[in-house]
Design a protein that fits this description.
This protein is of the alpha/beta class and about 150 residues long. Helix content is about 35%, strand content about 20%. It has one domain (about 1-140): Dehydroquinase, class II (Rossmann fold, 3-Layer(aba) Sandwich), CATH 3.40.50. The protein has helices at about 20, 25-40, 55-60, 80-90, 130-140, and strands at about 1-5, 45-50, 70-75, 95-100, 120-125. A 5-stranded parallel beta sheet has the order 2-1-3-4-5, with helices on both faces. Strand 3 (about 70-75), helix 4 and strand 4 form a beta-alpha-beta unit. Helix 2 (about 25-40) packs parallel to helix 5 and helix 3 (about 55-60) runs parallel beside helix 4. It binds 1,3,4-trihydroxy-5-OXO-cyclohexanecarboxylic acid. Belongs to the type-II 3-dehydroquinase family. This is 3-dehydroquinate dehydratase. InterPro entries: DHquinase_II, DHquinase_II_CS, DHquinase_II_sf. Catalyzes a trans-dehydration via an enolate intermediate.
Length: about 150
């Protein structure tokens, strides 16, 4: 089983950007923890980050016939991107949306979410731990979790 982790714009700046909202952890550390969990549970995981909408669409399309599930933080594109939404619908894979912050409690412009309606589930407001929850959730979907 293979999980594709796709990270949107400015998430490469985690650990630097707005630490009061996103915390001190860097993206590499988050990915390292996800990789360890994946290894422990015998699943493959691949990581991708881009600041460009079209590259994220390309990466989602590549998942078709390759990955078994997607963990996606589309970051600011969450609120604007019909193209990313359509790509998720097109590949029709289990897709878990993660947001580090609780977008429901933030600015008005973050209340529009183009992505959530086409995702299997959304995990918001748990900080970086949300990515771990998404891994657990994906294993549950794969029905491979060891308890
Ligand atoms: C975010 C929330 C988005 O509104 C924001 O644009 C981000 C990060 C989050 O993980 O909380 O870049 O997706």
């Amino acid at each position: 089983m293979k999980i594709a982790v796709i990270q949107g714009p400015n998430l490469n700046m985690l650990g630097v950007r707005e630490q009061q909202i996103y915390g001190p952890m860097k993206l590499e550390q988050i990915h390292q923890q996800m990789k360890e969990f994946a290894d422990q549970n015998g699943v493959e995981v691949e990581f991708f980050q881009s600041n460009l909408e079209g590259e994220i669409v390309d990466r989602i399309q590549e998942c078709y016939g390759d990955a078994d599930g997607i963990i996606l933080n589309a970051a600011a594109y969450t609120h604007t991107s019909i193209a990313i939404r359509d790509a998720i619908s097109a590949v029709n894979l289990p897709t878990l949306e993660v947001h580090i912050s609780n977008i429901a409690r933030r600015e008005e412009f973050r209340q529009q979410n183009m992505i959530a309606p086409v995702c299997t589930s959304s995990i918001v407001g748990f900080g970086p731990f949300g990515y771990h929850l998404a891994m657990v959730g994906m294993l549950q979907i794969f029905n491979e979790i060891r308890v």
